[in-house]
Specification:
Blueprint lengths: L2 H21 L11 H6 L9 H4 L21 H14 L3 H25 L4 H13 L4 H5 L5 H22 L2 H17 L7 H15 L8 H30 L3 H27 L18 H22 L3 H14 L22 H14 L8 H18 L2 H5 L5 H11 L4 H13 L8 H12 L6 H14 L3 H14 L5 H13 L3 H14 L4 H13 L3 H14 L4 H18 L10
Helix pairs in contact: 1-5, 1-6, 5-6, 5-8, 6-15, 8-9, 8-10, 9-11, 10-11, 10-14, 12-13, 13-14, 14-15, 15-16, 18-19, 19-20, 20-21, 21-22, 22-23, 23-24, 23-25, 24-25, 25-26, 26-27
């Protein structure tokens, strides 16, 4: 083995080992945020039948409250969760280990791609270190629900490598493999559809990158190749789009709203991503901005100017260099879905994990700027830019240890979110729920009170139904019955009368306040909207019994038993009501068997 090969091998292993060590703490992390719903609480992934339904349902199909409001069709991701549950069950260690291994594999494939593009060894190693260690990758590695990012990156990079082999050799097997892998990437993560950009760019710049000794094709030949490549890539995309439409349909009004949010906030979103890539300071799952500003000069014009200047500088630095132009263009095109055109709601436009695959190209572009061959390797300008890159990487890594701890558990994650955005009602709600689950005292319900106050100023930033309902439950637990009644009423009204639990709790609070007539009217109103619920009739029966109307109480309880014959509590209550009625009238108790 040559000296160069030894240096390459040991350099790659050193980068992988350093990345493994930096992410090693994730092996002790638990389930956070969506993990508890998408994995632990998702019956679709708990048995092998989920492998079939993964292709016919969207990611949140198990949650009826999200019907028609999500556009996440990721069947291969759901297959991975199903396989993971069969292998690891509810033990988080296995999932985190898989995420870490996938991250290292994605880095290895990114290194292979830079080798295929002919970058010098020092550039490739610098790019690999940046891709593996950049703190913006923490979310995709430390959060189980974000495992779709390294999964899609692995398949996408493999597709690019196969495409490069096809462009170089014109062997059909590489073309078929590339198209199949591209389709698999889109079935893993809908944003992977943007891989078409790097694939087409590779075809455009291919002769200069893959066969530098060959004669450069003319513009006409390039355009013809671009058209034919576009038709080839359209085949897997159309297949995935058809499968997606059959599985989850489309909500045209919702998509139109998301598209409006996208364009209004596009410049601010682009500036946030640019800042996070250049200086990844204090990253987390949640950001204070929702990027839904009106198009004012400060919120739209100034960010647009800064982004335009940054793009102009990057293009100037890449001028006349096919390799840099390809890397810069590929990274930018892969970021396009993060700026969303109907794929994501406006409040979800910025997440660290969206940079996962684009960073493979941005890292290579940056490393090429710093470490590419120079006429005078020790010239002050060359030394300065390499020193600047090293200083930047060390500065970025200084954030790594602290940022990764945010994903240790939900308490750490939601505490961080509230620190970043103390007036975000949804973040306050999440933290309040987690603190209550941990048994941390909050007798004044202060976080939920703050969430309610913040909701008044930012109605689009939170879930008012959940905030008011949780506030009602907290106030009830700490003896503030009148305030709890008001909170439950607000939750019921915000839900449009659809949250039965809030309506029931409101009736119970009226009864606890000795307002039996109001409680009876509220319960009767529930029977008109939720007459098929045995809980409603049982509640109405209890209210009637408290008023001494045993005839109505018995009738309501029998109606509850008719809807739920095996309801032991309702049967016991019916027996007590009948006994109380017999005692009041001095007659023998009637039969209490269910009708």
């Amino acid at each position: 083995m040559s000296v160069a090969a030894r240096i390459e091998r040991w350099g790659v292993w050193a980068c992988l080992a350093l990345a493994c060590a930096s992410f090693l703490p994730v092996l002790g992390f638990g389930f956070v945020y969506d993990d508890l719903q998408q994995l632990v609480g998702n019956p679709n992934v708990h048995d092998w039948a989920g492998l079939g339904t993964a292709f016919t349902k969207h990611v949140w199909s198990f949650d009826p409250t999200k019907a028609g409001t999500v556009h996440y069709y990721r069947p291969l991701f759901m297959v991975a969760l199903t396989l993971g549950w069969q292998a690891f069950g509810d033990h988080a260690l296995g999932y985190h280990a898989v995420s870490l291994v996938l991250h290292l594999c994605a880095g290895a494939l990114a290194f292979c791609l830079t080798s295929t593009l002919g970058l010098p060894l020092r550039v490739r190693l610098a790019a690999l270190a940046t891709f593996l260690l950049h703190p913006i990758q923490i979310q995709a590695v430390a959060w189980i629900s974000a495992v779709s990012e390294p999964m899609a990156a692995i398949v996408g990079l493999a597709s690019l490598l196969s495409w490069a082999h096809w462009l170089r050799s014109r062997q059909r097997r590489y073309l078929i493999a590339s198209l199949a892998l591209y389709a698999a990437a889109v079935l893993t993560l809908e944003r992977a559809v943007a891989l078409a950009g790097p694939l087409l760019l590779l075809g455009w710049y291919g002769p200069a990158l893959l066969q530098p000794s060959a004669a450069a094709p003319g513009m006409r030949q390039r355009l013809q190749a671009l058209a034919s490549h576009s038709l080839l890539l359209a085949l897997p995309v159309l297949g995935v789009v058809a499968a997606r439409h059959l599985a989850i349909g489309e909500n045209a009004a919702l998509v139109a709203s998301w598209r409006r949010d996208t364009w209004i906030g596009a410049s601010a979103v682009a500036l946030r991503y640019l800042r996070n890539l250049v200086w990844p300071h204090a990253l987390s799952l949640a950001y204070p901005e929702r990027f839904l500003p009106e198009p004012t000069l400060q919120r739209f014009g100034l960010p647009l100017l800064v982004v335009a200047l940054a793009v102009a500088l990057a293009l100037w630095l890449s001028r006349g260099d096919a390799r840099r132009s390809f890397l810069l263009g590929a990274g930018a095109l892969l970021m396009a879905p993060a700026l969303c055109v109907g794929l994501l709601p406006g409040h979800a436009l910025v997440q660290d994990r969206y940079c996962y695959l684009p960073l493979a190209f941005f890292a290579a572009w940056l490393a090429d700027l710093a470490f590419a061959d120079a006429p005078q390797p020790m010239a002050p300008r060359v030394v300065a830019r390499r020193a600047l890159w090293v200083a930047w990487l060390i500065g970025a890594l200084s954030q790594h240890a602290s940022d990764i701890e945010y994903f240790h558990d939900d308490l750490a994650l939601f505490t961080r979110a509230v620190q970043v955005a103390p007036q975000n009602p949804q973040f306050l709600l999440n933290l309040a729920i987690e603190e209550h689950r941990r048994g941390l005292p909050d007798p004044q319900c202060s976080r939920l009170q703050r969430a309610r106050t913040a909701l008044a100023g930012n109605p689009r930033w939170g879930d008012p139904v959940s905030i008011y309902f949780q506030l009602g439950s907290c106030l009830r637990e700490h003896g503030s019955a009148a305030q709890a009644l008001d909170a439950y009423g607000q939750a019921y009204r915000w839900s449009g009368g659809n949250m039965l639990e809030a309506g029931i709790d409101r009736v119970v609070m009226l009864a606890e306040l000795q307002r039996f007539d109001d409680a009876s009217r509220a319960a009767q109103a529930l029977t008109r909207t939720h007459g098929d619920s045995p809980v409603v009739w049982k509640t109405l029966g209890l209210i009637a019994a408290n008023r001494g109307d045993f005839v109505s109480a018995e009738r309501s309880m029998r109606r509850a038993l008719a809807l739920a014959p095996d309801e032991a509590a309702a049967q016991l209550l019916l027996e007590r009501i009948v006994a109380a009625q017999a005692h009041a009238t001095g007659t023998a108790p009637a039969s209490t068997s269910a009708p």
